[in-house]
Amino acid sequence: MFDSEEHSAQVRLMGHIFHNAKNVCVWLGDESFKFGAAFALLERLLDITNAVKILKDEELTPDWKPLFDLLSHPIFRRRWIVQEIAMAVSASIHCGTLQMKWSDFEAAVTVLEHMETAGNAILRLLHSLGWMGEFEGLAAPHFIAMTSKIFRKSNAGETTKLLSLEQLVFNFASFQCEPPDVIYALVGLSNDSKNTHPTTTFTRLSSNHRGLARAAPVFSLPISASTARQTFADVVVSLLAVRKAFQRWHTNIEPGRLRLAYEEISIDYHKPIHQIYQEFVAFAIAKSKSLGILCRPWAPVRKGLRFPSWIAMTDRGPFGPNPVNSILKSEDTEADIYIRLNGDPLIGLPGHEPYNASAHIPPRWEWQLNNGHDILTVDGFILDHIQDIEIKAMGGYIAKEWLELGGWLDRSQAPPDQFWRTLVADRAPDGGRPPAFYARICHEIFRKTNSDLDTDGLLRKDVQITSLSVPSFFTEFVKRMQRVIWNKKLIRTSRGYLGLAPASAKAGDLICILYGCTVPVILTQPLPSSRYSHILHGDCYVHGMMDGEALGVQKDYALPSRSFNIG
Q: To pair with 26 at 20 to 30 A between CA atoms, which of 147, 321, 335, 496?
């Protein structure tokens, strides 16, 4: 029988257990014949001076398939192994009689990652072997890249936690676990949360005085581990105490709505999954002072579980299992083959957002209960509506109709500035402004075809751009374009702005600026069937409106600030 209290207590101890282990062993199974060639190839890649030579050695070509199988092993997608490896003082990887130090495994994989970033060579090798996945989608490289950022270790052996809980949950969104462990498996690794018992902070807000309320003192009321065990009288007494305290603080604040802000994440398996996720969203907003968590896919899709749209599901994330995985899966491994399914979130990484659409205005948010459903109320304004919309860039294919909607009617001429900048969301891979030569590459690519453009096909070939002497420039542009447009729709707004929207967007949807969110978002107008709440589709790109310019439009057109009820 499952004992949730004992399980909660044991989870809080896991970090301590693995940190004090002499060595942590990663066991891949006892069938060493599967990965013998892979381990040998990894050993050879540790000789960095010969890495490129090894990649081009045709005699080693058969050995790459077992290596790709190893790098996509399902163990590297288990969320609990993140803590086990990250906390380990020493670790090793084993398969039957084969073994390798984790530090050597990590070094060899990062050599491969660097070679792919520099020249796209690994992707071409993958596809030459019939492997229909993406290097970025391989489990082990992603695992190593993410775990290496969790701690900074000193020479004395002391560790400093570097990432917030929101950063960890987003970074490891594709890692598998039971629904509560989406959060709980990472709490012990974060720098902003503790393994505590539940404490909920209630703050009474007025719709006319929310700015004042943010400066108000905080009153914490302990609540039992299971909210089901609270009596109605306890709740009433608690709320009356808060109201009395606030009346002493500022007698002019009128009664308003109630906001719940969770100061810490408590590991409590008694709680229903919806409550666990709601607490995490509230925690992330309160800690980051941003609504970015609404646009970062982090919650796994589970059959039988439905969540409100303010919980961003992983089916909106960049990578996922190939839909035809059962056909393309290797006969020698049970690993899923991951491919790109969507563009990267425009919101960027927590704390490293590349845009500033709301011009640093802090978020204004609160929870409401509507017909038994939790509604997230946020403030902002309607910037525009979607007027025209083109077919989504499925599989990275850009339909020729995109050029017409983008105002590029003559391909012999240079592309309009707003068009090529929209294709890369007006950013370079590092989040800075795109270099001017992107316009030239865009022209070279599109003028050579009168049909739809297969961006993935461009990267699989040794394409030569005759007017450019540095091929890496071409690869950089195409990869950046893919990260932006994949499965998105090109849109034109009623005010004439060009942009990109999620695949679920449709004509008539609202383009909104939410205070505390660094990118515009797409909302669907509420309908009676949706309990009068808006549906959040995700972030979007609106050319010329990504760095605070929308606030000028709001002033020029007298666009009113308002509240949006997201359900």
A: 321
